[in-house]
Amino acid sequence: MSVSETATPGQISEKGAAGVRMRGVTKAFGSNVVLRDLDLDVAAGERVVIIGPSGSGKTTILRATMTLERIDSGTIEVGGRHLYHELHGSKLRPARESHIRAVRSDIGMVFQHFNLFPHMTALENIMLAPMKVHGKSREQARDSGMELLDKVGLAHAANQTPGQLSGGQKQRVAIARSLACEPKVMLFDEVTSALDPELVGEVLNVLRDIAEEGRTTMMLVTHEMGFAREMADRVVMFDGGQIIESGAPADVLVDPQHERTKAFLGAVK
Ligand code: ADP
């Protein structure tokens, strides 16, 4: 990523990627406080890998950014627009659903378990949101859907249903589906964890291609440390719902400063 492609947090890069700014984000499930007063800035076009032990809040921060979990307090901005709040003069008020939906339309998320519609073909899965949410015509959605399938190496599988595809192919369709809405920020939650080892590489290759294009900011939760080291601009270590260490992969993954990071990396190696 060159400096010219990177805007300051909260802005949009030349290529259309959006920055993310989180302040004081807190979330509890009952008495279990999962995110604690968390601050995180992700620059437009940046690729941030989130690591940390199970239960440290990695999935929850992605789901909160996708508005699949509502936060208890704090703020999240995407491309300079508040996600959960609206500005009334200089005052922040809780946002209406229509505002939340509008800001969220800039964000795409890919899950561990694909979440494809099983009764639809690969192409139909990809065409759905552009038609229903973004008002594209069937022809437009089909053309760009085929382009995306080609991009993830699956043009030949356009008319197959998820049940006819391998795990790696399903995940590539899920990624293409997410790209169909031209997200300015993409969230990837352990997208290779459910795959057989021999299928992981094909999905990581698609992520590399997306990263290279630089059109979207990427936040990834992954246990693929080699991949993280190669493609992350920054690695962020979560523990107990907070960020305890953050820096270049060559620092955090190779020469971690925090004892908890050392212990975690020792355990995943
Ligand atoms: P990680 O991704 O780091 O493994 P998560 O964000 O998935 O961690 O979960 C953090 C904590 O929040 C865990 O203790 C988990 O059990 C809890 N949690 C996550 N989602 C829910 C939920 N919907 N209801 C209750 N507890 C949840």
TrEMBL record:
Top-rank taxon, per record: Bacteria
Subcellular location: Cell membrane
Keyword terms, alphabetized: Amino-acid transport, ATP-binding, Cell membrane, Membrane, Nucleotide-binding, Transport
Keyword Cell membrane: yes
Topology of the protein relative to the lipid bilayer: Peripheral membrane protein
A GO term, aspect molecular function: ATP binding
Nucleotide-binding in keyword set: yes
InterPro entries: AAA+_ATPase, ABC_ATPase_HisP-typ, ABC_transporter-like_ATP-bd, ABC_transporter-like_CS, Ectoine_EhuA, MetN_ABC_transporter-like, P-loop_NTPase
PROSITE patterns: ABC_TRANSPORTER_1, ABC_TRANSPORTER_2
Residue ranges of domain ABC transporter in the record: 20-265
Similarity comment: Belongs to the ABC transporter superfamily.
NCBIfam families given in the database record: ectoine_ehuA (TIGR03005)
Name of the featured protein: Ectoine/hydroxyectoine ABC transporter ATP-binding protein EhuA
Provenance organism: Myceligenerans pegani
